[in-house]
């Protein structure tokens, strides 16, 4: 239960005022409901009894009838206010929780981010958080309000009716309700978990089938993927059916308990009336209040049935807070939105005479848990206008070096400086304005060519976009596809691998960085196109320091200096 309590505290902390008022109104709704039924029963019985005696002329019908109307209207207004306040506060809290979850994912280790699947991350941010909306609305608040109302009902029944009736109703609901709701939670624990996980598996399978539909058809795997989707759907439906049966059985059991307790209250009241210890109207009050208190338990059955689903989702959402592997922040200034990074003023970096624009000294990096370092006491420098290529076999640390230079990893020892200033001393805006990394798996978004290029700067003109495309030998390809308004699918679908790579390079050029880090920039291109792209990059950024991780002959020949790393 600890994860659920943690989530509830987060939801409450997001809007404590609204949640407090909503919780009070929840109690008001339940108290008004039981009071309305009890007063109505008392009024009808008292009026009938008065009509049988000479006291009919003295019976005041206006006071009780006004109370009935007041309770009915008050209950309706309280219900509206309770739903408005608690739902609004919960939705705002879940929105904040999604943002917090995204921030924590971005602070995960680079290896974790590189392995992160889009469908998995989307499920974590949407489905898991959505599953938590019932923590406050269907579990904690109804449970707390129900307990408070039952305690109030006990004292009122003991005062207005009889202690025996009050004790019968209180013990019956506390014991019977606890047994049934606990059994419901146990019965629904595994089905609710399976239903939630099955729904997420179904969502991932459908996303995978949609994204890879071309490959699935080409390789004859579409039918197998369809079987995976149908199997996930069947598992989810089976779990939901089991959960529905548990909830319906709980409803039947709770209805039986409410009926038994109301009947018992009526029997006890009747016995007291026959002995002259209680008047018929008060006996009716005890019966109808006992009947009305059952409403509080009915509202809890769904929350208890879905307890496993909510607990499972809360555990996954909170895992990132304590998960190992979060990297140390390399830059000191807090990160900012992309628009701020592209438009905010930045600190000017001017290297001193004889100082390289990018300088690496005694750099050592060891992956978490590894016995030997990937990079050991590496030193190199890249001056303005110079191109340096690092070469080596796969796994030698070429890409890792670029990630370190980009401030995405923290070295074990050594220093990386930009224009003589160590990376930890640079603000995020300054670093991103001066340095750009193009990794092997750079991303495009669904949208037009212009929209993908505009991610580099806010005020992109068509002339600048066309010039950047020409620099990477992509103008004729884009023109054939419809120009800057040509639409790409998800992940840049509609372009080949080499075309995607060049569009990402064009976007990087529009940043006009002083330091450009390239990881296998011409992978997938023929030698002639590769050479044209490389020459276009240098012509666009004649004074930039370029560090590239390379193994192709075209890239090594383009570099002014090659640094081998083992």
What's the CATH class label of the largest domain? Answer: Mainly Alpha
Radius of gyration: 34 Å
The class by helix and strand makeup works out as alpha/beta
Main sheet properties:
5 strands, parallel
Number of domains: 2
What is the strand tally?
A: 11
In words, what does this structure look like?
- By secondary structure, the chain is α/β, with parallel strands linked by helices.
- The chain has two domains: 2-322, ABC transporter type 1, transmembrane domain (ABC transporter transmembrane region fold); 338-564, 3-Layer(aba) Sandwich (Rossmann fold), CATH 3.40.50.
- The protein contains 22 helices and eleven strands.
- It has helices spanning 2-14, 16-51, 62-106, 110-115, 118-130, 134-160, 163-211, 213-218, 222-274, 280-292, 294-298, 301-305, 307-322, 338-343, 398-405, 428-434, 449-454, 462-471, 475-480, 497-510, 527-540, 553-558, and strands at residues 358-365, 375-382, 387-391, 413-418, 421-422, 435-438, 447-448, 487-488, 515-519, 545-549, 561-564.
- The strands form three sheets. The chain has a five-stranded parallel sheet with strand order 6-9-10-3-11, with helices on both faces. It has a four-stranded antiparallel sheet with strand order 2-1-4-5, with helices on one face. A two-stranded antiparallel sheet has the order 7-8.
- β4 (413-418) and β5 form a beta hairpin.
- α7 runs antiparallel to α9.
- The longest helix has 53 residues, at 222-274.
- The two termini are 51 Å apart.
- Residues 322-346 have low confidence and may be disordered.
């Amino acid at each position: 239960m600890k994860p659920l309590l943690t989530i509830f505290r987060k939801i409450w902390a997001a809007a404590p005022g609204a949640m407090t008022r909503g919780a009070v109104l929840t109690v008001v709704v339940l108290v008004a409901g039981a009071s309305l039924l009890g007063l109505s029963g008392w009024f009808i019985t008292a009026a009938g009894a008065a009509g049988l005696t000479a006291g009919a002329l003295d019976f005041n019908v206006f006071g009780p009838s006004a109370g009935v109307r007041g309770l009915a209207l008050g209950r309706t207004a309280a219900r509206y206010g309770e739903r408005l306040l608690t739902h609004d506060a919960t939705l705002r809290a879940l929105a904040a929780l999604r943002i917090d979850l995204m921030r924590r994912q971005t602070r995960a280790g680079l290896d974790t981010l590189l392995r992160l699947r889009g469908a998995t991350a989307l499920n974590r941010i949407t489905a898991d958080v959505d599953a938590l909306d019932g923590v406050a609305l269907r579990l904690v608040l109804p449970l707390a309000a129900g307990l408070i109302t039952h305690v109030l009902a006990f004292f009122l029944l003991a005062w207005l009716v009889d202690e025996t009736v009050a004790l019968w109703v209180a013990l019956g609901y506390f014991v019977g309700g606890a047994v049934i709701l606990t059994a419901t939670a146990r019965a629904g624990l595994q089905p609710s978990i399976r239903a939630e996980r099955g729904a997420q598996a179904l969502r991932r399978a459908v996303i995978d089938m949609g994204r890879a539909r071309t490959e699935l058809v080409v390789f004859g795997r579409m039918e197998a993927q369809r079987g995976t989707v149908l199997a996930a759907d069947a598992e989810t439906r089976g779990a939901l059916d089991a959960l529905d049966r548990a909830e319906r059985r709980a409803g039947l059991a709770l209805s039986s308990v409410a009926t038994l307790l109301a009947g018992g209250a009526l029997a006890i009241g009747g016995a007291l009336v026959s002995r002259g210890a209680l008047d018929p109207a008060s006996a009716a009050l005890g019966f109808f209040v006992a009947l009305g208190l059952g409403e509080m338990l009915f509202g809890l059955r769904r929350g208890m049935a879905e307890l496993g689903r909510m607990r499972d989702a809360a555990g996954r959402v909170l895992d990132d807070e304590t998960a190992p592997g979060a990297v140390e922040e390399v830059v000191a200034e807090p990160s900012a939105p992309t628009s701020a990074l592209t438009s905010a003023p930045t600190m000017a970096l001017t290297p001193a005479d004889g100082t390289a624009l990018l300088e690496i000294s005694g750099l050592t990096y060891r992956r978490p848990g590894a016995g030997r370092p990937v990079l050991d006491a590496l030193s190199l420098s890249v001056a303005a206008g110079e191109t340096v290529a690092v070469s080596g076999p796969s796994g030698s640390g070429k890409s890792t070096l670029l990630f370190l230079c980009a401030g995405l990893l923290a070295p074990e020892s050594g220093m990386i400086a930009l224009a003589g200033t160590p990376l930890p001393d640079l603000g995020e805006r300054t670093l991103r304005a001066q340095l750009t990394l193009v990794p092997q798996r750079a991303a495009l978004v669904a949208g037009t060519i212009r929209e993908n290029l505009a991610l580099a700067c806010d005020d992109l003109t068509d002339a600048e976009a066309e010039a950047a495309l020409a620099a990477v030998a992509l103008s004729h390809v884009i023109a054939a596809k419809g120009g800057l308004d040509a639409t790409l699918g998800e992940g840049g679908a509609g372009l080949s691998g080499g075309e995607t790579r060049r569009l990402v390079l064009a976007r990087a050029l529009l940043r006009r960085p002083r330091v450009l880090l390239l990881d296998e920039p011409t992978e997938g291109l023929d030698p002639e196109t590769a050479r044209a792209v490389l020459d276009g990059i240098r012509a666009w950024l004649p004074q930039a320091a370029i560090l590239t991780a390379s193994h192709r002959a075209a890239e090594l020949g383009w570099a002014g200096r090659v640094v081998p790393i083992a």
